[in-house]
Amino acid sequence: MKTVYFDIDTQIDFLFPSGSLYVPGAQQLIPALHRLNHHAAKHGHPLVSSMCAHTEDDPEFKQWPAHCVVGTVGQLKPAETLLEKRALIGVAPGDYQTHGAQQILFEKNQLDITTSPNFRPLVTRLAADRYVVYGVVTEYCVRFAALALLETGKPVSLVTDAIQTLRAEDSAKTLSEFTARGGRLATVAEVCAQ
After folding, report:
1. Strands, E, within the chain: which ranges?
2. Contact 51, 12 (CB under 8 A)
3. DSSP E strands: which ranges in 43-172?
4. What pLDDT, on the 0 to 100 scale, is given for residue 1?
């Protein structure tokens, strides 16, 4: 069974208190993120790590503080979450080569990963039997990714101890919506036992 892991927006600007759009408590996810990403690599599961990749005057900054500007430290992923063999899929439409990569760094410039013209082609090419989703923030980027993957008709697990929220009530609504649509909640230990 081919499982594809989606590690959503686990970048320095979100994970650390010094980040420009810090998600309170998110730094505590790093051991779980490390474990999941390395578990995927050890078992030969493709890992897609989405990354916000904004310009300095990105339209999104009218709604959110500036964050994850390309070329800044805040846009990077912590070393603990990176795998050795990586490929990059940029924001621009294209036929990106990912063969042999353990981790696909998938850049996006909007909250919803499906707005990237490269998302659907990548999902089609990966041809997963199931998906595992985790990262930040539960009620925004994680929600968009998890619900979009459910639309493939394949099983999707959301790892509840590897996500972080800005508002507990919004997270609860997201989890309810996800499970109501057929998604499954799992823990890091459950995922890594498979």
Report:
1. 3-8, 47-52, 86-89, 103-108, 130-136, 156-164, 184-186
2. no
3. 47-52, 86-89, 103-108, 130-136, 156-164
4. 85
Residue range 95-149, pLDDT digits in tens: 999 999 999 999 999 999 999 999 999 999 999 999 999 999 999 999 999 999 9
Identify the domain containing residue 109 by its residue range: 3-192
From the CB of residue 118, how many other CB atoms can be counted at a distance below 10 Å?
A: 19
Q: Which of 20, 35, 9 is nearest to 136 (CA)?
A: 9
- 125 token code pair: 């090419």
CA 101 to mean position of chain CA atoms: 17
- The pLDDT of 76-90, averaged and rounded, is 97
Tokens 């993957």 found at: 149
Closest by alpha carbon to 186, among 5, 1, 2? 5
Residue 122 makes CB contacts below 8 A (sequence gap 6+) with 48, 89, 98, 104, 106
Tokens of 61: 């900054």
Closest CA to 21 of 74, 90, 89: 74
Q: Domain holding 95: CATH number?
A: 3.40.50.850
Q: How many domains is the chain partitioned into structurally?
A: 1
d(CA 88, CA 44): 18
